[in-house]
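dumping the sequnces here before i forget
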Amino acid sequence: MKPIRRSPDWLRSLGARLGFGSDRGVRSGLSSSGSSSIPRFVTRLGKPRHTMRSLAAGSLAAGLIASGAGLLVDLPAMPLITTAHAAAPQATPAAANATTTATTAVTTPTAAPRSDLVKRGEYLARAGDCIACHTAPRGKLFAGGLAMDTPFGTLYSPNITPDPQYGIGTWSEDAFFKMMRTGRKPDGTLIYPAMPIAQYTKVTREDSDAIFAFLRTVEPVREPNRKHTLRFPFNQRELLYGWRTLYFHEGEFKPDPAQSVEWNRGAYLVEGLGHCSMCHTRINMLGGSSQREQFAGGLIPVQNWYAPSLTSDKDGGLGDWSIEDIVDLLQAGISKRGAVYGPMAEVTYHSLQYLSDDDIRAMAVYLKSLPDNRGRKSGPSATPDAQVFALGKQIYADKCALCHGANGEGQLPHYPPLAGNQSIEMDSAVNPIRIVLNGGFPPGTKRNPEPYGMPPFGQELNDTEAAAVVTFIRTAWGNHGLPVTAREVNALRNAPLH
Amino acid sequence: MHRRTIGSSVLLFLLYALGSGASLAAAEVPGAMPSAMDERVRACTSCHGVQGQGLNNDYFPRIAGKPADYLFNQLTAFRDGGRTYPPMGYLLAFLPDDYLRKISQYFADLQPPYPEADHGNVSPEVLAAGERLVRHGDPARKIPACIACHGARMTGTQPGIPGLLGLHASYIAGQMGTWRSGTRHALAPDCMHTIAVKLSDRDITAVSSWLARQPRPADPRPAPTAAGPLPLACGSQPQ
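..and the predicted 3d for all of it:
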């Protein structure tokens, strides 16, 4: 892992904002728009990087508590991360010449027929997307070692294969369930919320046992865990008590008897294993996710993609999506309304494409029911500078209209419409700018195995041109987005690509 | 192949015209290339050229006509970390092997015209040194000739060895540099790494300058098989 470039300016400004206690302050401190002082992180290649907003959240919250509020009790018995892992030697890097990627197939090492329990466990592990974090690029399946960059240092996912020394081979079913429910390892160590502990706590005992049974069948890998490299004070695991007090509510998912079985199944998957709120709920002042803002969207720090709202609100929400559209987007990666890209492409690729039609539909039904707070944007579009609009219109005609249509109507199902597309017109311009600069393929899925790719334009459009075309698509055809500046574009040229 | 593509398009056009019984309407058929692969790979061709011929800069090399296995190995290397170029890794991150094989075959089957060979001042001595390494290697330093693997015509060898023509000198030199430094990997045993670490900067300049000045080959197709046993084992080229 290459060293991380820090940004003292950014930390200072974040600290100052935290000091003022302004909710918006943290947001803009973490936001990329218009800021050139975003901490930039070296990208690890071959696999998407993982940004732990909750971890950042936890550390921030805990840091605040430790420094100011004096809520932290003295807990000398809790091992610090530095000591907890002192015995673990540095991981040997995965063989650079491994010829296969372990991320494409989940197989068992034995030829023995797999029990229904194991199959169910594999399915649920897919639903939880365990593989995305617990398998490193070119690494062995579930052997961990994936570097997860946070604003506070780098964490490495642990080995969860059944190896008795380095994996979880000595764990019991009970211990695994306790970890899922309480966010603690069998020895009591608190787990950093890079692991979606606030979501996995909702998983039932039955499902936890199935996942454990499946994990017992994967090939044991003798690879030690890598030591986290969090900076002081974020490497003090006791600080997690602060985070947990605020944001960890232990307990299984409670079905709502007033809702249908389907709705409850969807809620269980979305709020639990699916851990959607890890990205789709924004970070609040203490760096945590507030219940009130559940699923209302937010910028993903470090990765610098905006996870749109999943509620029915005006800004990117699902208010006027059909159930079918949501199902298609989640499962196939493309829909009549748009395609998944960025971090969501990974979720569809590793997880959602494998879920049953019934489960995906249940998730869609639940998501569709999230409350509508503000309604869709309406009224006239913003009026951008006429020259900028004209330049953008010209670039659109030259480079975009071929696929997206002269009037932003798209060509379904492969070229998404841009007119009325919330990804384009939502308040944050991060995603449309990045898609124009970086292009992208939707994930290759069972339902869409050969996706059509959007070309990157970062190399042929300068900042002014890219800003003009993004401004055009955000304000043309009745779209309700706001203009963007060349500076915003420039800042995102350095956003990590993984 | 360019001509063949046009031929196929014409054929499709005719079939469509016959089928629909309205030849005039056929003029409106969108995306005339078979299988719409040209549409699917726009994210590739916007940088590597509509026919994969490469652009006139050092970042976007010719990919057309290279052996399909070679291209597939490169795509998976970018995706999984064996080659490090973030824009490529990002584009390929969530594409499955089957599709990458299809994309590889698509570009392997294209054979667009070669670009103009490099010009500009390079001393005859440097070019002579380059030609010597390409054709004969340097037995004293145990450096095999390039043509021993990449073919006498330097158009590559099926299934995994790429051609060396139609590339800019700086691109070739850049790749030799990444092999030497270990940031570009091939399947083990990584023969190109073994060779590159023996090359001096002067060798790399000489070889890349000479290669980039060679005229278009009369037959641009990769050789179907190696002329003899490879001088060293290469993971990309099973023997």
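Chain A touches chain B at residues 43-48, 95-97, 99, 101, 104, 137-138, 345-346, 348-349, 403, 414, 438-444, 449-460, 496-498 (CB under 8 Å).
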